[in-house]
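(Fold this chain)
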Amino acid sequence: MQEDASTLPQLQVPSNRGDSNAPSKELQDVPGLLVIACVFAMAGGYMDAYAYLAHGHVFANAQTGNVVLFSVFASGGQWAQAVRHLPPIAAFALGVAAAKLLGVRPQKRAFHATLICQAFELVTLAVLAVVGARLPDACVVPMISFVAAIQFTSFRSIGPWSFNSAMITANLRQAISGLVQWTAGREATENRDKAIALSLISLFFLLGALCGGFYTRLEEKHALAPCVAIVAAGFLLTWRKRGMHIHSMLPPGAVVGTGASQDH
């Protein structure tokens, strides 16, 4: 998937123009962001496995799969089966639009829009974990698609590299591309780091899907509970990263929350 530039905060420390150390500062911020990316990739894999197994074999995140399945059923005249794959596609599109609209608002603090999106995702999944088993599939899957879209749109880059926490195809492509260029000796350090980072994100997506598949088969009624815990962990890590970023932007001796400096 080719991703365009976004005005939504991308969870990376903004660099100052004319700062010759900006690239190194951006790369120094990668490890902390990579941890958060892996956590949300795991949540993305979990959500899709849960939705597919527990709610009618319809994908929540993988809209390519929904388009293909819609086309397969429609080509065979099975319209009742085909139309089940349309609501998640529409919900995913609405989620992207909602996150974009939130992101274009002026933000006074870094990570603000991203944290709002993550908080909404956390609350939605928590509600579905409690009442989702009593709701129709046509309601549950689009709700998951919506929060998967805002998760993907609100956090989709770590340092210089873009990634996707809702699907694996783009991550796998970039990991393989980085690996090939690394072994060919082209910008070896950068491509090595890129290959490792995107491979880890892909691995955690796989682990999330495995956990989602296993736990859904084990305890379908409350299968979203572990996913809620994963997203909560990601939210707390993002909140901590936001605090660290705000602290790093303060002048020496400044008191957080007052804007004043301490006299020494």
